């Protein structure tokens, strides 16, 4: 990767702004780091979950007798054994700990066992006899709203209408470019999105939410001077595919409670759900973060937490559970598949006037975070562009498909694929350069989003685009290139003369932190004292889940910068300190970084007070500025006299705890309007691909990006987030899809669900745009999500450029290229 | 799971370890992790697709999830815990740290083993050969960029030594 030079802040070694090594790096390269699945207890049992093989069925009876009869089986639990709340969930507690009457998705937990060996546990779950009456699954999200409810809470998680400006006052366009044939491979037919406003070609398929599109143009009124483009788009179901499967170790405690070592993204929200389902007072349940092998959204929801604790409490012994890869695919939520219809209206010189969109997210069987994912999809349906008028309707619905929830990009990934395809088509309809069109409409500070919210922070949209496209293109293909570098790689199937190159660009906006009035604060405690050798040492205690992103490094950097102390220790993240909120929404640098900063500053205040007291003064009011921490002394600025920090700490340790809250946000009103978001980050991606159209094979060879980071607090870690995020975006573009057939997952393994390898990963060239964000600790924006968002549409735009195909669906599969080409030819 | 229990001895990182009365069906990965207290080798897929359980078996890089523990009798097993003396780091491990190649770290031990294997066999491997050599090791966090940089750094340091 190449990056622009980044200014460093050399005042404190290992402080903020520098590339600093991870504190957990050495144990991670030696194998000594304890991931949650590495934990071991001599008396432990192995837990295992029995899951429904059916996406929809009634449970007539469950016979656990045969399982209990197996030697080595210690406990078998079903819904009857849940002492507390029978259901859990992040926003709505609609998901049973164990299914009792009906199962609503393939893989829904029905029972759990504890046994002396994992193989015994496997035999035990196979021995449980469940009598199912199989029922017809509801698998088409277009039908969900009007179908018979499959859950007492109904089939619509949320309908979010957005009305912005005066959309009805915009005259119809003179030209409506090309109406969707239903997205390649997308089901036509009836439903929410399929039912699109009928326009031109009269092609719209059926009735429903998305298909049923507003009638437009067809012989459109002449004279408005406006041009519209419309299209239907589809995004398949992506899996987070973190490497470390779900795992946890539950240990019963002497007070009748339980201690759970768990890989999660948010200890405290797990804690609250686990305690409620166990029927225990919160004080008797303690959660400690086990080492986390990646997350990407898949560890926001409870998976095995309640099951493993129930087994430990029932058996009185430590119980370890870890999912196999197959079970992991069934055991966590996925990225929502989406069906979308978009119509953009613009002036002939390329000024966006109006957006109409319908968005349908398939939430699967349980709510998870569907309502919030939908809010993101609707709020950011316009992308990083000024659009004065908009009508957007979004639905997130319940089906008997696998439950969907959080994944990196959280609702914005889906709409970005659609709006960026639309921007390219609009550019084509207008005869404009697609980058020019984007620059022309790029949001700036002071502009309003579709929600009416005015951007008060930084919005370097133009800068990220310009930095992105300024990167050199890779060399043209040459006959001397290794044939491994052709599409299809080691398969050596592509013919060089058939390969076509394409370039595409896409741009994105992402909200940082939680939205719609939620106060997702963080807490940190910082203790400063002398170690055994009389040297200052700071200890940070924060429940922020380190999932690989590097918060542990950042916490040390912040403490060094704020307290001028080189030794910074980290206490294990657990529930004995206040909540840090979730490691998601690109929020921990801002939220927990801010909490650590506040706690450090509170500690520093005490140091200053101690120094002042030694001079017989209380530092209040104007006298406060007389003292400052300079190097390893507190200096009286009037006299220049310094008091060494080690002397001040001789009076005893200093410990302070602080909460960090972001500025409050508002809920969205009935028109989807309101100041619902905290801050925004922007990115642009340019992809270069080689395609063999006959074989439908794609090689993504280069991605250039410009990313708005506010300020890079650890530049190398930022680059790591950018490259890793791009890998997942490339995966969604050309490789990754959970294949769901009548509610059943057909590819729950790394043999069949393919994620990018080192051979699939393109070279990345990145420029970090540093414009410090007002109100953000150290000016830094979260950086984790944007790389995943616009990289996908950039790759697909490049494939379109190489092939001339419409490609309205991701991932782009070989048949989407090869078979369409053949038909068109 | 008592009927097929067997007892055997494994030579891991130069030390003999007794494995008393284990189920014959246990993989080498399971035995290392759960019986010998060597959890450095990871279990991301348990079917030979991800490389996170990579170990050297008589010098050959294998997925330890696809080898029976009892099949490793009479072989020399080397795991990530054995690539450097206690308390020390191998050049590959050091290069991973120096380039920021570690994020969540779950793939790291397997990659360390794969890179040692590669650099011992083909110290001058070019970038494409390196990418191919580690293409059996899945990483979901890094996008491989810093890992490739780590390998290049290790190559440079070996060449310059």
Kindly describe this structure.
The complex is a heterodimer of chains A (825) and B (161). Chain A is of the alpha/beta class and 825 residues long. Helices cover 24% and strands 25% of the residues of chain A. Chain A has 18 helices and 36 strands. Chain B has 161 residues and is an alpha+beta fold. In chain B, strand 1 (5-12) and strand 2 (15-23) form a beta hairpin. The N and C termini of chain B lie far apart (52 Å). The model of chain B has no long low-confidence stretch (mean pLDDT 96). At the A-B interface, helix 1, helix 3 and helix 15 of A face helix 1, helix 2, helix 3, helix 4 and helix 5 of B.
Summarize the structure.
The complex is a heterodimer of chains A (825) and B (161). Chain A has 825 residues and is of the alpha/beta class. Chain A has 18 helices and 36 strands.
How much beta of chain B, percentage-wise?
15-25%
Q: Unreliable stretches of chain A, pLDDT < 50, 5 or more residues?
A: 1-10, 180-190, 197-207
- Quaternary structure annotation: heterodimer
Number of strands of chain B: 5
Mean pLDDT of chain B: 96
Helical amount of chain B: 25-40%
Computed over alpha carbons, the radius of gyration of chain B is 16 Å
């Amino acid at each position: 990767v190449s990056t622009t030079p980044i200014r460093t802040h050399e005042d404190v070694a290992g402080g903020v702004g520098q590339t600093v090594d991870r504190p957990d790096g050495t144990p991670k390269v030696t194998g000594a780091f304890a991931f949650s699945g590495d934990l071991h207890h001599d008396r432990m049992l192995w837990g295992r979950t029995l899951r429904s093989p059916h996406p929809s069925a009634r449970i007539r009876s469950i016979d656990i007798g045969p399982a209990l009869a197996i030697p080595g089986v210690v406990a078998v639990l079903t819904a009857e054994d849940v002492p507390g709340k029978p259901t859990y969930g992040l926003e709505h507690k609609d998901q049973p700990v164990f299914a009792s009457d009906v199962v609503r998705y393939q893989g829904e937990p029905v029972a759990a066992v504890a046994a002396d060996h994992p193989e015994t546990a496997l035999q035990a779950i196979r021995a449980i006899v469940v009598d199912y009456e199989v029922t017809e699954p509801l698998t088409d999200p277009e039908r969900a709203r009007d179908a018979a409810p499959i859950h007492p809470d109904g089939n619509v998680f949320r309908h979010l209408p957005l009305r912005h400006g005066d959309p009805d006052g915009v005259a119809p366009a003179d030209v409506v470019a090309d109406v969707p044939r239903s997205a390649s491979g997308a089901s036509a037919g009836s439903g929410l999105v399929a039912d699109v406003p009928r326009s031109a070609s009269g092609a719209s398929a059926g009735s429903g939410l998305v298909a049923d599109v507003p009638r437009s143009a067809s012989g459109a009124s002449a004279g408005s001077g406006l041009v519209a483009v419309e299209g239907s788009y589809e995004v398949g179901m992506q899996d987070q595919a973190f490497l470390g499967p779900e795992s946890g170790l539950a240990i019963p405690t002497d007070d009748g409670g339980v201690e759970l070592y768990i890989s999660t993204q948010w200890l405290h929200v797990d804690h609250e759900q686990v305690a409620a389902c166990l029927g225990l007072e919160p004080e008797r349940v303690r959660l400690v973060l086990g080492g986390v092998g990646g997350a990407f959204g898949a560890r926001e929801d409870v998976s095995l937490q309640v099951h493993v604790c129930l087994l430990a409490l029932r058996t009185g012994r430590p119980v370890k559970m870890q999912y196999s890869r197959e079970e992991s695919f069934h055991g966590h939520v996925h990225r929502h598949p989406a069906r979308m219809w978009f119509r953009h209206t613009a002036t002939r010189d390329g000024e966006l006037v109006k957006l109409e969109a319908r968005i349908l997210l398939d939430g699967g069987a349980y709510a998870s975070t569907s309502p919030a994912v939908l809010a993101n999809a609707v709020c950011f349906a316009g992308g990083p562009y000024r659009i004065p008028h908009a009508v957007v309707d979004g639905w997130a619905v319940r089906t008997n498909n696998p439950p969907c929830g959080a994944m990196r990009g959280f609702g914005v990934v889906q709409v970005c694929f659609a709006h960026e395809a639309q921007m390219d088509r609009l550019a084509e309809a207008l005869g404009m350069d697609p980058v020019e069109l984007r620059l022309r409409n790029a949001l700036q500070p002071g502009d309003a989003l579709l929600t009416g919210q005015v951007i008060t922070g930084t919005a370097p949209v133009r800068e990220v685009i310009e930095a992105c496209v300024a990167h050199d293109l890779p060399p043209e293909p040459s006959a001397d290139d290794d044939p491994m570098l052709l599409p299809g790689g080691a398969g050596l199937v592509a013919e060089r003369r058939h390969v076509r190159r394409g370039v595409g660009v896409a741009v994105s906006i992402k909200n940082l932190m939680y939205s719609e009035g939620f106060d997702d604060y963080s807490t940190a405690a910082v203790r400063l004292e002398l170690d055994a050798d009389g040297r200052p040492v700071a200890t940070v205690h924060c429940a922020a889940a380190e999932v690989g992103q590097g918060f542990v490094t950042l916490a040390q950097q912040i403490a060094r910068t704020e307290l001028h102390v080189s030794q910074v220790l980290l206490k294990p993240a657990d529930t004995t300190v206040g909540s840090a909120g979730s490691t998601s929404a690109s929020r921990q640098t801002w939220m927990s970084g801010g909490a650590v900063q506040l706690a450090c500053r509170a500690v520093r205040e005490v140091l200053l007070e101690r120094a002042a007291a030694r001079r017989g003064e209380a530092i209040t009011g104007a006298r406060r500025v007389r003292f400052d921490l300079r190097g390893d002394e507190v200096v009286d600025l009037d006299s220049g006299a310094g008091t060494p920090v080690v002397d001040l700490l001789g009076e005893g340790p200093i410990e302070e705890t602080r909460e960090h809250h972001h500025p409050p946000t508002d809920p969205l009103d009935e028109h989807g309007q309101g100041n619902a978001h905290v801050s925004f980050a922007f990115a642009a991606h340019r992809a270069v691909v080689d395609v063999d159209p006959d074989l439908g094979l794609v090689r993504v060879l280069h991605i250039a990006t410009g990313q708005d980071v506010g300020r890079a607090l650890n530049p190398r870690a930022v680059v790591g987030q950018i490259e890793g995020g791009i890998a997942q975006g490339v995966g969604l573009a050309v490789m990754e899809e959970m294949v769901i057939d009548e509610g059943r997952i057909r590819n729950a393994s790394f043999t069949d669900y393919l994620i990018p390898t080192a051979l699939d990963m393109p070279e990345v060239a990145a420029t970090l745009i540093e414009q410090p964000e007002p109100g953000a600790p150290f000016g830094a924006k979260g950086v984790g999500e944007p790389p995943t968002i616009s990289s996908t549409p950039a790759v697909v735009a490049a494939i379109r450029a190489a092939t001339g195909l419409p490609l309205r669906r991701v991932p782009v599969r070989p048949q989407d290229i090869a078979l369409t080409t053949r038909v068109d030819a | 799971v008592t009927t097929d229990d067997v007892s055997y001895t494994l030579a891991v990182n130069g030390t003999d370890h007794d494995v008393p009365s284990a189920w014959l069906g246990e993989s080498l990965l399971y035995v290392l992790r759960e019986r010998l207290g060597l959890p450095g080798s990871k279990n991301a897929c348990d079917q030979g697709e991800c490389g996170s359980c990579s170990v050297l078996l008589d010098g050959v890089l294998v997925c330890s999830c696809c080898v029976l523990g009892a099949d490793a009798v009479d072989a020399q097993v080397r795991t990530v815990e054995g690539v450097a003396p206690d308390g020390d780091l191998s050049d590959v491990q050091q290069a991973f740290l120096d380039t920021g190649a570690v994020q969540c770290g779950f793939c790291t031990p397997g990659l360390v083993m794969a890179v040692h294997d590669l650099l011992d066999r083909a110290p001058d491997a070019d970038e494409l050969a390196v990418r191919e050599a580690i293409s059996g090791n899945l990483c979901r966090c890094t996008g491989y960029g810093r890992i490739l940089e780590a390998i290049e750094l290790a190559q440079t340091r070996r060449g310059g030594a």
